[in-house]
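Title: Comparing notes on inverse folding

I've been comparing how different people in this forum approach sequence design from structure. To keep things fair, I'm posting one structure and asking everyone to reply with a full sequence. Here's the target:
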């Protein structure tokens, strides 16, 4: 079977080619396998990889197309899944040294939606152990390499550490991740891809190893905002339209119709190069008709201070490890274990006080955002660090907090967001623009992201090709 090249094509075009018989899912699978051999062995996106399972899924998709059966816009397309999700036929490690109990291999709602749409799962991508970290490191299985730096092993972003890398190696067009404090948006931002953080409870987290049930959300990474809209519609239980019709509906939003808020807090804590690149992108958008106004959001600062003290995730994670996952505590990543004493010291009174305060802040932030359509901000405040410089201790903690700074308040305030690439910083690493919308306004965030992408161009058009993937 001829290998099918899909590297520069949007999902809607690939789907049309498959449906009309110009290419085959098996041909795409063979290209994915070739890309894995050429790129992923060096970059390390995957914890578990099964080319024969991929070929089998592709054959099923082709048989369905041959019978004139079109189950979804992702039929036959390669999708990677974070190794926090249960996927039948694959062990779930959640970044730990040994596989989790069999119950964690059961597929939940997100994976089931992809299966029903005949998407082809390529494998399980690396995650930070139990998803507790924003840098992307894992001492047990190794850390995927960010393809944008040919000289240094830069962080891929966490905790969905292999997700963005899998898109860049050409082994997936959709990468499934999870986001508790930024774990979809961070890897998307630092790898120059698009990340969607859904509203809490919008997508079920069944079949996903929990970190913080109060904050965990399922999400996706894609190569473009348009692809994100299509994949979102395949998975989302509230979207009734065909995914391509959903995308067409989102495209009705024009850049001149958008009023955005600019909250200085996000820029003040970002490196000068990232803040400047983000402001330049916003200026470009304003030149094309978008309107931008200052928006004070003290709730963001308050939420960040609660996050710095452990937020809700620290206590909930500690309870999970000390309970059901007690057998895994002794082998925890030292950078996680070092913080365990502080996590266990959070009292019930403090935890409940934080919950109540965050609920108040979320209501206040939602009302304040009624003045604009969305808030625009830098997604990640710092350039992804060289892994060699943050092995442990203070350096790791500072890098981790820097990576999470601009994303965590979105989770704590019950907002939704999309990150899309807009520039390279002074170190030639990608800069993400975070599109933040109120709770439940996921379609709004996606429509604005699509409008911005049409106005500024895709990642490939603005950033070029990562040096370590230039041969793809």
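Reply #1:
Here's my take.
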């Amino acid at each position: 079977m001829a290998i099918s090249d899909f590297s520069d094509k949007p999902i809607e075009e690939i789907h049309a080619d498959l449906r009309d018989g110009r290419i085959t899912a098996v041909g795409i699978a063979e290209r994915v396998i070739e890309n894995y051999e050429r790129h992923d062995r060096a970059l390390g996106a995957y914890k578990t990889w099964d080319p024969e399972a991929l070929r089998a899924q592709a054959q099923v998709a082709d048989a369905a197309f041959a019978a004139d059966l079109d189950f979804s816009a992702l039929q036959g397309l390669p999708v990677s899944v974070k190794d926090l999700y249960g996927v039948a036929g694959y062990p779930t490690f959640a970044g730990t040294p040994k596989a989790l109990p069999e119950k964690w291999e059961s597929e939940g709602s997100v994976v089931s939606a992809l299966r029903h749409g005949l998407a082809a799962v390529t494998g399980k991508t690396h995650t930070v152990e139990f998803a507790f970290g924003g840098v992307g490191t894992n001492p047990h299985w190794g850390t995927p390499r960010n393809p944008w730096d040919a000289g240094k092993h830069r962080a891929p972003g966490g905790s969905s550490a292999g997700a963005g890398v899998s898109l860049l190696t050409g082994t997936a067009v959709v990468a499934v991740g999870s986001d508790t404090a930024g774990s979809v948006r961070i890897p998307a931002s630092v790898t120059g891809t698009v990340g969607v953080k859904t509203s809490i409870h919008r997508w079920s987290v069944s079949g996903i190893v929990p970190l913080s049930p109060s904050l965990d959300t399922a999400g996706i990474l894609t190569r473009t905002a348009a692809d994100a809209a299509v994949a979102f519609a395949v998975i989302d239980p509230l979207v009734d339209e065909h995914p391509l019709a959903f995308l067409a509906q989102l495209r009705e939003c024009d850049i001149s119709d958008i009023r955005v808020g600019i909250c200085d807090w996000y820029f003040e804590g970002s490196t000068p190069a990232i803040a400047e690149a983000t402001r330049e992108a916003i200026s470009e958008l304003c030149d094309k008709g978008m309107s931008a106004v200052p928006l004070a959001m003290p709730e963001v600062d308050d939420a960040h201070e609660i996050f710095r003290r452990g937020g809700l995730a620290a206590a909930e994670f500690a309870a999970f490890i000390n309970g059901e996952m007690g057998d895994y505590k002794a082998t925890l990543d030292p950078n996680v274990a070092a913080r365990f004493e502080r996590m266990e010291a959070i009292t019930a009174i403090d935890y409940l006080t934080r919950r109540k305060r965050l609920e108040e802040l979320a209501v206040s932030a939602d009302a304040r955002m009624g003045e604009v359509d969305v808030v625009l901000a830098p997604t990640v405040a710092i350039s992804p660090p060289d892994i060699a410089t943050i092995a442990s201790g203070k350096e790791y903690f500072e890098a981790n907090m820097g990576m999470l700074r601009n994303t965590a308040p979105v989770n704590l305030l019950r907002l939704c967001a999309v990150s899309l690439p807009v520039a390279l910083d002074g170190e030639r690493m990608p800069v993400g623009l975070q599109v933040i919308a109120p709770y439940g306004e996921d379609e709004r965030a996606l429509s604005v992201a699509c409008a911005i992408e049409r106005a500024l161009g895709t990642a490939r058009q603005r950033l070029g090709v990562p040096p370590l993937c230039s041969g793809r």
